[in-house]
Amino acid sequence: MSTANLDFEQFRGFLEKACGIVLGENKQYLVSSRLNKLMEQQGIKSLGELIQRMQSQPRSGLREQVVDAMTTNETLWFRDTYPFEVLKNKVLPEFIKSNAGQRLRIWSAACSSGQEPYSLSMSIDEFERSNPGQLKAGAQIFATDLSSLMLNTCKTGEYDNLAIGRGLSQERLQRYFEPKGPGRWVIKAPIKNRVEFRSFNLLDSYAAFGKFDVVFCRNVLIYFSAEMKKDILLRIHSTLKPGGYLFLGASEALNGLPDHYQMVQCSPGIIYQAK
């Protein structure tokens, strides 16, 4: 095996241990595209040198920067549309019927740059406008991501025209955002204040989170091994209230775990109810 291939194998091992992400054997190009800029800034000439630097300087912040670069994904507002319609038309009316007076708790896991939790917050606002006074105790959205860089973006609630253009309608832009200088927008306080952001690795303990009525864990499990994916799904189940709902990505399916989840057809889309 060549030195470059050995370095890549070592890097694959590092990434899986650090955050659970399993890189395919032919993903050298992805590593190069994600890390080239960082390696250039640091004066690092090879993947082997990068690994050596992370090991010899554990407190330099380089390890965190590498994980950030490898785990940051582009995301959309109201991605796939149907999960947010299912939330408004099925999940929220059911919650109100069986949990009168309780506060709704939603977890947006792997929230990237914040589009998902803010889309959820807008969806709740839209539901409340159509059903005034029904969600009496309101709602809290708990949003987590591994990348501290991404969370800083989330917390400001500020986005440029390029980010805004990824799936946000003009109507929602006008209703929920305010201009913040040329080509920039900031999300309005009532939508922003409903969301709490926290840095979190899906491989860590969920014990301190409490219980949720809904968990969105969309388009992230595809990066994990089958064994790790099953472990995460079991731990998510432990955070869901009985009858609570799990939303996965459009291309993701929950195979197995029949003692824990029941598939619910929503036409369009599928969600999973905790047993």
Automatic annotation (TrEMBL):
Enzyme class: transferase
Swiss-Prot/TrEMBL keywords: Methyltransferase, S-adenosyl-L-methionine, Transferase
UniProt-listed Enzyme Commission number(s): 2.1.1.80
Gene3D superfamilies xrefs: Chemotaxis receptor methyltransferase CheR, N-terminal domain, Vaccinia Virus protein VP39
Domain CheR-type methyltransferase: 1-275
SMART domains: MeTrc
Catalytic activity: L-glutamyl-[protein] + S-adenosyl-L-methionine = [protein]-L-glutamate 5-O-methyl ester + S-adenosyl-L-homocysteine
Domain of life: Bacteria
PANTHER family: CHEMOTAXIS PROTEIN METHYLTRANSFERASE, CHEMOTAXIS PROTEIN METHYLTRANSFERASE 1
Role played: Methylation of the membrane-bound methyl-accepting chemotaxis proteins (MCP) to form gamma-glutamyl methyl ester residues in MCP.
Name of the protein this chain belongs to: Chemotaxis protein methyltransferase
Organism expressing this protein natively: Pseudomonas saxonica
